[in-house]
């Protein structure tokens, strides 16, 4: 009699567990649905819409005309595109200075001394400023007639007016707020370091650079990945400082793909051609981020 009663009760438990699991999955789906819809409307749809638009000739008002790969052919035959691509690569290379310098500042500020909060706020202040303000500040700084650079060097240097110096000057201005951003990321990562591992390494004789390289830096690997990815995205979408400081000039020498895309869409009403530039920029960004993501996953495994 007891065996006949125990069988239905034992069979009911898996059913209850499966029903509870289905309810949990349904609840998770309901929670994810608004974010998924928003992500689809704001990210996925614009990506495919830009790819489709790049095959058309459209001024934003009249009827679209299908031109196939004509926009891409024209793009790869234009000298301004290669100038913008070269400048984007220069931004990518020099912007990689932000994570290590930000890490240095974070290590310096990760102390419990009196007044360190005020110092942290001073280091973080440039990141709070908008790109327009940063551009104006550095435009005054580079001014060859009354700028601070003239007072430092003793003579004026036309940084923004020189085609060979303008890109470097704008990148230096962009590094000013980007470095504190990486610094904040690393300060957050330093608070999550396991102190027991650090103490065990010190007991084994590790100290100084060896302690940092073999114990602290490996624990900051996720933060380093985020800092590099966000720095790459910031370098590839650089626009505001160029628009404020040089307008892509002189003679398109400081233009990048993002500004070139804006220039063609807003000034010349070439929406399809501008979309082809956006697709190329998206492809470069995607390849770079996927490369770093696979590298980080390989190291984790």
Description:
This is Carbohydrate ABC transporter membrane protein 1 (CUT1 family). It contains 14 helices and two strands. By secondary structure, it is an all-alpha fold. It has two domains: 2-45; 65-300, Orthogonal Bundle (MetI-like fold). Strand 1 and strand 2 form a beta hairpin.
Protein traits:
flat; disordered N terminus; 301 residues; single chain; 2 domains; mainly alpha; 76% helix
Task: Predict the CATH topology of the largest domain.
Answer: MetI-like fold
Overall pLDDT confidence: 86
Structural class: mainly alpha
Strand order of the largest sheet: 1-2
Strand content: under 5%
Globally, the shape reads flat
Using DSSP, what is the number of strands? 2
CATH superfamily of the largest domain: MetI-like
Number of domain modules:
2
Order of helices and strands: HEEHHHHHHHHHHHHH
Secondary-structure topology with pairs:
Blueprint: H1 2-53, E1 56-57, E2 65-66, H2 70-76, H3 79-95, H4 98-109, H5 116-128, H6 131-142, H7 148-153, H8 166-191, H9 195-203, H10 208-219, H11 221-236, H12 240-245, H13 257-267, H14 271-300
Antiparallel strand pairs: 1-2
Helix pairs in contact: 1-14, 3-8, 3-11, 4-8, 5-8, 6-8, 8-11, 11-14, 13-14
Family: Belongs to the binding-protein-dependent transport system permease family.
Biased composition (Low complexity): 1-12
Region (Disordered): 1-20
